[in-house]
Amino acid sequence: MEKAKEWLSQVFLGQSRLQLNSCLGIYFGQDSATIVVAQKKGGRPVLKQRLKVPFPALPGRREDAAPSAALKTSFVSDPAPLAAALEKAMEKISWSGKQVVVALSSQFSILRYFSMPMVEKRFWHRAIPLEAKKYIPVPLEEVAYDFHVTVWRMPDGKQRLGILFGVVYKKVLEGVKEIVEKMGLVLAGVEPASSSAGRFLGGLGSLSSEGVIRVHFDPAIAYILVSHQGIPVLSREVVLGEDIHGGERKRLDLAGGLDFVKKQIGGASFKSVRITGVDVEMWKAHVASESGLPVEVEDITSVLGVKEGEWGALAGAGAAWKYLIPPAGDLDLTASGRVSEEEKTAVFTIWACGMALAGFFFLLGLVNWGLIYFKKQELTHLLRKTKAIEAFQGQKPEQIQTMVQEMRDQVNILEGFLSEEGLVYKKMQQLADNIPEGVWVKNFKYSFPMDTAITGRANKSLNIAGEVSSSDATQEVSLVNEFKKALDRDKDFHKDLPQCDSPSIQTQSNVGQVSKGGGRTSFNLVCRQGA
Questions:
Q1: What is the pTM of this model?
Q2: Structural contact between residues 299 and 320, judged by C-beta atoms closer than 8 angstroms
């Protein structure tokens, strides 16, 4: 039933996911933004341009400096300066599109992954937000959220739901919308930066049943991203501090993160850790020691064409790729173009009721057909019992021939009438197709003498009576003549009634009745089968 609902929602409500060939991605950090232009070329996304834009200093940002703040909001307290800075930077980029996807840093959005027992899909929109309250440190009433659901089979054979849950304060989301609108762009989606960066780092590879561990090093922050089948099951940021070149490295707690992932999805296996960013050779041995896995240094410069290794550039690139590659763990905090479960259920209900009604009428028609069939069989049986030959007993051949001819004449008359079935309807349709605006047909009379079917004489006729209302009598007469010419040009009408007499026209001025609008003209038009 769920597959039927998905199919019907796509048929009747349209495609819920955009299909683009080029897109703009913007990463919003606390102090700067990164703009990335991506384009699909040869079926694969290609990065065209990247630009980092520092934000102007704005008063009021200090209120977000407290580490206890789960999400920052003063970022969008005044969207106009941010929009102006980005709009000015866009002048340096050669791009003619309008669609933009925004990736929000962890200061403005939250991305969490958790598992829960199996729940029927029709209850997801209620059960999942209730479960998410255990993992989201802000009231859900104050945020916009979206979630992606995956069904995992645990080692014990039971199925569980894996939930990728993203949130953003409604105030921040409205500010982002205002910034994009001021830039003259169309907001195609908003998502957490971890989701965007994960899409970029794994975008050119195929989805694997095995897990992928990535650690990206910026100068002061390490970004840990553990994905399974393209879904970011774990995303974590570790502040390294200023003196990362000292003898003792900051612990990344990779082992604890992997234990969390295995408990959430069960059966996940990891063969190596892939590291990117700055000072990767310095961190290689440390990562191997913490994870107990081989470490691979991934050169994103040569593989993905990224010159700078900052996290914002990766997130901006992943945002630009959102609608250029197949979705995996797809979130959109704006819910733009997404079909809700209520809409899918409504479409499915209407479709089911329609099919039930159609089935009822089909069965009713089948029963009626059966009754008619049995009545016909009974009638045939009765006719076989009738001794019609007795009517001709004692009659001469000439008398029998006369009786047969009379019966044939009666049959011809009946067939003649039956052949005219639907003619009046057709003529009404033809009149409606040819009547000019301002002309009304009040009544018409169709004549079909009984001897027409026998003698073949052309005695059929159609008498049309009507009125015309226009600005003046001359124009009204012209409309009547135009109506007659239109009927003459109609091949189907002309085929049955080829002769139309000149219309008999009478204006109100002729009878002393002139209306304020210029008068009303009456007419009578006769069309016949022959002279």
A1: 0.60
A2: no
